[in-house]
Amino acid sequence: MSTPDAVAIAHLWQRAVDAHLAGRSTEAIRLCEQLLARSPGHVPGLHLRGVIAIGGGDVERAITILRQAADLDPDNVAVHSDLALALLRAQRFREAVSACQRALERQAHAAELWFILGFAAGELNARELAQAAYRRAIELRSDHADAKANLARLLHEDGRTGEAIALYRSALVDQPRHSVALNNVAAMYLAQGQLEESISMLRQVLRVDPNDAGATGNLGLALADTPAFAEGASVQAAAPACARDRGTAGIFLATTAGGTTPAGDFGSGTEDVTGRATLRAASDSER
Q1: Using alpha carbons only, how large is the chain's radius of gyration in Å?
Q2: pTM over 0.85
Q3: Using an 8 Å Cβ cutoff, are 268 and 17 in contact?
Q4: How many CB atoms lie within 10 A of CB 125?
Q5: What are phi and psi of 270, to 5 degrees?
Q6: What is the tens place of the pLDDT at every residue in 6-60?
Q7: First vs last Cα of the chain: how many Å apart?
Q8: Cα-based torsion angle of the residue sequence 120, 125, 127, 128 in order, rounded to the nearest 10 degrees
Q9: Given 52, 171, 260, 266, which is the most exposed site by the fewest CB atoms within 10 A?
Q10: What confidence score (pLDDT) does residue 4 get?
């Protein structure tokens, strides 16, 4: 039988979830803090409060809160994924690697943790670890377009262009509007002088995101070598300096940070007799 306090906590929790999902962050924060004042070990409440902090740009607060949640529920993949994401946002890449590795000791089949491990390792130039982590993410989730795109970039940088293009194309089967895969394949075609294919893909990227600086710069370069050179000059002039000046001849290759949204299903917290709650992590197939 539920106690009055347990009922009040459950009510606060549901109101906090509803406010968060409706985009009312200030209200969601207030409700989370009321909930945590009553039940400091409420893992879903800690998780939600940490995710709101990530969304608000307060990554240091998010890291502190999500570490607490992870300590309370070491098997919760969603919490560990969001902790690692917060560490990535803070550019604390070594800590992100460590956080992923610790979590994977318990949850070795969590594709998203392998993906985040790959991204953080790549930022540290630990290329073998990054490639192995991305491959494991793909093994666990065959439609993981972000992992394929990032692994393809690493392979391309190693001179394995054919494998890289195959992976990019596989990512585009999974997610046809994947802007990073489109941009990077187009950049590779541009470097090889295959202008028609490059221009077509870059225009696709800019239909998805007209403000994509890398694609804008690459499109300007591609058009400059065609009869539409005047348009190319105009596009290139409009591209930010970071897109014009990156890499050989300005060709820009991108990496995706992948999921930037909460890993958990915030509607599934359940209270036990001690007042502690657990939040079911979304399965790989649900992500």
Answers
A1: 22
A2: no
A3: no
A4: 9
A5: -135, 135
A6: 899 999 999 999 999 999 999 999 999 999 999 999 999 999 999 999 999 999 9
A7: 34
A8: -80
A9: 260
A10: 66
Please state, in angstroms and rounded to a whole number, the distance separating the CA atoms of residues 257 and 133: 14
Query: Which burial class, exposed, middle or buried, applies to 10 when counting CB atoms under 10 A from its CB (0-12, 13-18, 19+)?
Result: middle
Is the pLDDT reported for residue 271 higher than 50? no
- For the chain, give the number of residues: 287
Query: Are the CB atoms for 267 and 22 separated by under 8 Å?
Result: no
- Token representation of residue 223: 């058009």
Cβ atoms of 269 and 278 closer than 8 Å:
yes
Segments of the chain assigned E as strands: 270-271, 277-278
Distance CA 122, CA 247 (A): 18
d(C-alpha 199, C-alpha 215), whole Å: 10
- Kindly give, in sequence order, each residue whose CB lies less than 8 Å from that of residue 233, ignoring residues fewer than 6 positions away: 220, 224
CA–CA distance, 66 with 106 (Å, rounded to integer) = 17
69 closest CA partner among 88, 96, 86, 46: 46
CA nearest neighbour of 48 among 73, 72, 21, 75: 21
User: Could you report the per-residue pLDDT of 193-208, keeping only the tens digit for each?
Assistant: 888 888 888 888 888 8
| Whole-number Å distance between alpha carbons of 133 and 43 | 28
| Side chain identity, residue 32 | C
Copy the structure tokens of residue 253. 């290759």
Predicted confidence at residue 280, as pLDDT, reads: 21
